[in-house]
Design goal:
Length: 256
């Protein structure tokens, strides 16, 4: 049994108004607000973070953002800083999601700046890595993941590393209903663990949570979560309904 506490994080993407967030968070808190065996995080859009924070206050459910800018403040129209997120009691931030890489041109170097800024501000980064279908078919999955992981974590100290969360999200499995097989997922998770050992040493690498993301649902979660190096899930579609999200949290509790 792993000593790492499982983590289930919901990435709501560009869904839910502030009022919707209140309703969804109210249901989540009622069902798993006292869950202590699994770390539960919800990541609403920026416009719903404050209303979600009020509902989550006093519960064990934590608040995350889906992105942030690396600078502390200034002329960056449309952007949000780590300090702004901290002021709303956010504890986590998703960085380098494949949709940000694909649609907004985010590079490993830019993602790395965000990771360092998040850590400097006591926000826990959820660093996303993962290959496209073309890259998997070309046999370059591990190389792609290595480049993204090492690029994203450059300059992260051994002290900071245990607070980093890595999310392995094969791009071809995100929102497609095509989940990676447990063998495919575990192979990459074990590879990531090995890279973390090289970067930070074994003791620290064993503390870092590595989440799987990509069409994770209550039906496929138990098998994925039973794998040695799969420490939870980053959940898109199934995080938009309280029932499926709560079922995933319960699956993680059962798998621990
Ligand atoms: C995601 O976007 O992080 C994700 C895993 O989405 P989905 O669960 O919908 O595949």
């Amino acid at each position: 049994m792993s000593s790492r506490k499982k983590l289930i994080a919901g990435n709501w993407k560009m869904n839910k108004t502030s009022a919707d967030a209140v309703a969804l968070c109210t249901e989540i808190v009622a069902a798993v607000g006292r869950q202590a065996d699994v770390e539960v995080v919800v990541c609403p859009p920026f416009t719903a973070i404050e209303s979600a924070a009020k509902v989550l206050d006093g519960s064990n459910v934590k608040l995350g953002a889906q992105n942030m800018h690396p600078e502390a403040s200034g002329a960056y129209t449309g952007e949000i800083s780590a300090g702004m997120l901290r002021a709303l009691f956010a504890t986590h931030v998703i960085l380098g999601h494949s949709e940000r890489r694909a649609y907004f041109g985010e590079t490993d170097a830019f993602v790395n700046k965000k990771v360092l800024a998040a850590l400097k501000n006591q926000l826990k980064p959820i660093l996303c890595v993962g290959e496209t279908l073309a890259e998997r078919e070309a046999g370059t999955t591990l190389k792609v993941v290595q480049t993204q992981l090492e690029g994203g974590l450059e300059g992260v100290s051994k002290d900071q590393a245990p607070t980093v969360v890595v999310a392995y999200e094969p791009v071809w499995a995100i929102g497609t209903g095509k989940v990676a097989t447990t063998e495919q997922a575990q192979e990459v998770h074990a590879f990531i663990r090995g890279l973390l050992v090289k970067l930070f040493g074994d003791a620290i690498a064993q503390k870092v949570r590595i989440l799987y993301g990509g069409s994770m649902k209550p039906a496929n979660a138990p098998e994925l979560l039973a794998q040695k190096d799969i420490d939870g899930g980053l959940i898109g579609g199934a995080a938009l309904e309280a029932r499926s999200f709560v079922d995933l949290v319960n699956a993680a509790a059962a798998a621990k």
